[in-house]
Each structure stands twice: as structure tokens, then as C-alpha cells.
Design goal:
By secondary structure, this protein is of the alpha+beta class. It is about 35% helix and about 25% strand. The strands form 2 sheets. Strands 1-4-5-6-7-8-9-10 form an 8-stranded mixed sheet. A 6-stranded antiparallel sheet has the order 11-2-3-12-13-14, with helices on one face. It holds the Pfam family AAT.
């Protein structure tokens, strides 16, 4: 996978993104047109109308990002409403659809690590992009996600990083859409500013954000329109899959996880305990080996094609990412970490 590097104003960043990945963005729209039909029974036109309700929330919480969305639309030859809908896809579809992502942070020997698999529909595999952005007035950042979207999983030059776990829930209220909130986190000057996105700006639909920084801090936030659930490290680690378990969140939000979410959480906890005890030396290869685990396949941490699932619900691991936040280094394996030879490493200069 190649890294796309863009710099400039919001408008310039967006237009460069849109031009460079126009074909992939158009394909992403086709993928989500099918997904919205499969999971919530609506077409693209109705999804665009649904996305309009989130526009005032973005205008209040992060208005600058709308210039970048407009630039993406211009560069790709699409309407702003198409790009808005793509960036609100979680709020539109996660009443019924949830991925199978497994994420964790671990601190060992003075180094803060973040890692995760991103599991989603296989028809989105080739629409994954890695972006290195240098926005005017904000830290440089790297985001790995879907073409046409303003952010997903990544880190910035200040050593702030974030991972994402989808949560299936019917809750949707006031706050920033998930992917817009992730971008605001990635522009944070420090970890406290990143945490304010979860605790102050709030997020309009449930998700888990695992926020960490190169100075050794890591906290999980089960975000939603209310006060987020907070997960502090245990044994130097925070782990999460696709269900809520912080009492502050579970008493406010009802979620509908698939049965394998709790199995994967127990498995990642066991792997970290057994393979990365306190005092252990860690490198990216050891963390990718954990993300390649196939226990309880086909519902394992590393997720492969499962013909027994309905076609619209087949989720596979589309990429794995390991971040050394202390060194500001991100390593990506595009595809399943157990078999991928498509590896990209990005190093940011400390800001």
C-alpha cells in the first residue's frame, strides 16, 4: 500500500485527497449504497437525507472539517452531500451492522503501544487508504481508513493515537459523528485535548475510542451522546472488542453485540497476559503475531471468510495497524496480518 501525503488548508487537503482517490471514493459510495440497503433498507438518496441531520452538529463542534469534505467532493467530482453521507455511515448503518474489530493498548519498558485489527465487509478492502496529512494550524497526522472519509485509526506528531471499535446500538443523539470525532482527536495538541472530544464534544452514536499518548497514558472511552464510560489500564493494558462494559456506559446505552465479541475480548486479555508479561520486550512483529491469532475461528481475532454467514454479514480483517506512540511510528499491514506482505511504515517527526 502507498502512503498519500497532502499538506495545506482544509480545502487543499480535501481536494488533493479527492483527486488522488476519486475512483476509490466512488467505489466506497457503491459499497455503502449496498450496505445501507442490506442493513437498514434504504437507498443512497434516503441516506443522504438522513446525513443532513448531522450537519448542524458538525457546524457546532468542528466546522472547519466541512471545508475539507467540500474539497474531497470537488476533487472526486461528487456532491458535498455524498461525502457527508460517507462520513456519517456509522450513524446511518450501525443500528444493524457491526464489525469485529479487536483493539488494545499496552505499555512496556517506557513505550506506549496501540494496535488493532479492523474487520469489515470484504468489498471495502481495496478502498482502504493511508493518509499523511499536514493541515495548516494543526499537528501532522497519519490516518488509516476508507477513501473519502476524514479519519479513522491513527496517530499524530504530538504522540496522540486513537483506535476504534464499532458498537451496534439504536442510540443516536447529539454530538459529533464518529469519524469526524476521530479526526478531531487526531488534531489534538495533547492527550487532554483529545479526551475532551469524548467527554465534552461528545459523540452522537456509540463506539469505543482507545486514546493513548507517547508519554505512557492510555484510556478507553465508550462514547455516546452522554457521559462516556471510562476504561483505565489493567496491568498496563486496555483491551476492547465490540460490546460495552464500562458501567457508566452500560447504564445509559443498550447495545446488541454479536456473540463472538466477548470471546475475542477474553482471548486478547489472555494473549497479552501470557505473551507480554510485565518486563517483556515488545516490537511490532510481536503485536502483529497477537493480531494474527485464530483461536475460535472463524470468529477469531484475525477474521477470515466464513461461508456459513449470510453474504451481507461476512466480516473479514481488512487491515491491522501497530503504533509505537513514543517513537511516533505506525506500521500497517493491508489485509489479514497473518498473511499480508503489503506492509507500510510511517514515521512522523515529533511535533
Amino acid at each position: 500500500m502507498q502512503l498519500s501525503v497532502f499538506s495545506g488548508s482544509r480545502s487543499e487537503l480535501g481536494e488533493a485527497h479527492g483527486r488522488a482517490h476519486a475512483a476509490l471514493i466512488t467505489h466506497s459510495l457503491e459499497v455503502y449504497d449496498r450496505l445501507f440497503h442490506d442493513f437498514v433498507g434504504i437507498g443512497w438518496a434516503e441516506a443522504r437525507r438522513t446525513a443532513e441531520r448531522f450537519l448542524p452538529m458538525i457546524e457546532r463542534g468542528f466546522p472547519e472539517i466541512l471545508d475539507e469534505m467540500a474539497g474531497i467532493a470537488r476533487g472526486a467530482g461528487l456532491d458535498l452531500e455524498d461525502i457527508l453521507t460517507l462520513n456519517c455511515r456509522s450513524e446511518i448503518s450501525l443500528t444493524q451492522a457491526s464489525g469485529g474489530c479487536t483493539a488494545f493498548s499496552v505499555n512496556r519498558d517506557g513505550t506506549q503501544w496501540l494496535a488493532q485489527n479492523w474487520d469489515w465487509r470484504s468489498d471495502q478492502l481495496h478502498n482502504v487508504v493511508a493518509l499523511e496529512l499536514h493541515p495548516e494550524g494543526a499537528p501532522a497526522l497519519v490516518s488509516v481508513g476508507e477513501a473519502g472519509m476524514v479519519a479513522k485509526i491513527g496517530m499524530n506528531a504530538r504522540g496522540v493515537g486513537v483506535c476504534l471499535n464499532a458498537i451496534r446500538s439504536r442510540t443516536c443523539g447529539e454530538g459529533l459523528p464518529i469519524h469526524v470525532a476521530l479526526r478531531k482527536i487526531l488534531e489534538a495538541e495533547d492527550v487532554n485535548q483529545a479526551i475532551r472530544v469524548a467527554s465534552h464534544d461528545r459523540v452522537c452514536s456509540p463506539a469505543h475510542f482507545l486514546i493513548a499518548s507517547g508519554d505512557g497514558r492510555a484510556t478507553g472511552f465508550e462514547v455516546h451522546p452522554g457521559l462516556p464510560g471510562v476504561l483505565e489500564p489493567r496491568g498496563g493494558a486496555v483491551t476492547h472488542t465490540n460490546h460495552l462494559y464500562a458501567e457508566t456506559a452500560t447504564c445509559q446505552v443498550e447495545d446488541f453485540p454479536r456473540p463472538d465479541s466477548r470471546l475475542r475480548l477474553a482471548r486478547i486479555d489472555r494473549l497479552l497476559h501470557d505473551r507480554l508479561p510485565l518486563g517483556a520486550t515488545i516490537d511490532a512483529a510481536r503485536l502483529f503475531a497477537i493480531l494474527s491469532d485464530h483461536d475460535n475461528a472463524p470468529f477469531s481475532i484475525c477474521r477470515h471468510f466464513n461461508p456459513d454467514q449470510p453474504a451481507e454479514e461476512r466480516m473479514e480483517t481488512l487491515f491491522a495497524v501497530v503504533m509505537d506512540l513514543t517513537a511516533r511510528r505506525l506500521t500497517l499491514r493491508h489485509g489479514k496480518p497473518c498473511e499480508s506482505e503489503d506492509t507500510l511504515e510511517v514515521q512522523l517527526d515529533a511535533g
